[in-house]
Specification:
This protein is 78% helix and 0% strand. By secondary structure, the protein is mostly helical. The radius of gyration is 25 Å and the shape is flat.
């Protein structure tokens, strides 16, 4: 009886092990495909997050931005910077977070504009 129980346990572990390795391979493949899809701009964005110490999502939350539009970023930045000035009883810490968030969003805008320029086809040669 113990022998059959041991065989069942071993077979069960083999099945679970195979399923786990299959799921792991699929996850690696999906991760690689996502990294390829992000391309260089994804790497630049991750590098910018690392350098600034603030992620893109966090910067958007701090400045209450849903889309990356320079006008909205500047408007919200100016408002939050003034509200958090030390002279009016604001917090220097919060003011510095607002500045870092704006810097991070500005860097993301630069990355996106550079990517768009690279994706545009070169102008056709002039006719002679």
């Amino acid at each position: 009886m113990a022998r059959y129980l041991a065989q069942i346990v071993v077979m069960g572990m083999q099945v679970v092990g195979r399923a786990f390795t299959k799921a792991l391979r699929q996850e690696f493949a999906a991760s690689r495909a996502a990294a390829d899809a992000r391309g260089r701009s994804g790497q630049e964005s991750a590098a910018a997050s690392s350098l600034s110490g603030i992620s893109l999502q966090e910067a958007q939350q701090i400045l209450n931005i849903s889309k990356l539009s320079p006008e909205e970023i500047q408007k919200n930045y100016e408002h939050l910077f003034k509200v958090n000035e030390k002279s009016v009883g604001g917090s220097f810490y919060l003011q510095s977070k607002v500045v870092r968030a704006k810097e991070r969003l500005d860097e993301e805008l630069r990355i996106q504009s550079r990517e768009q320029k690279e994706q545009q086809p070169p102008p056709p040669p002039p006719d002679r």
